[in-house]
Design goal:
The protein is mainly alpha-helical. Helices cover 53% and strands 0% of the residues. It comes from Sphingomonas corticis.
């Protein structure tokens, strides 16, 4: 049975599996919570498939500086570099 990671993690087993695979705490939590909420769409999780606005929103959320001057490819690269 998966350890309870508190109310901020909605799917503890998936979170633990992702952490064992080497994902960061933030990414594992984001994926586990999206799956638990039913909003995880594997087709749209690829960065290249997201809209520029969605990439800008994620870049803002994780604190990437200079994002307003980046095109879509640069945003993808910056977000990948942060993970």
């Amino acid at each position: 049975m998966a350890k309870d990671h508190g109310p901020q993690i909605k799917d503890d087993k998936l979170y633990e599996d992702l952490r064992k695979q080497g994902e960061s705490k933030e990414k594992a939590a984001r994926i586990a919570n999206a799956k638990a909420a039913g909003t995880l769409d594997h087709k749209s999780t690829r960065l290249e498939d997201r809209t520029k606005k969605a990439l800008m929103d994620e870049a803002r959320e994780i604190g990437i500086e200079g994002r307003s001057k980046m095109d879509k490819a640069a945003l993808v690269k910056a977000i990948r570099g942060h993970r």
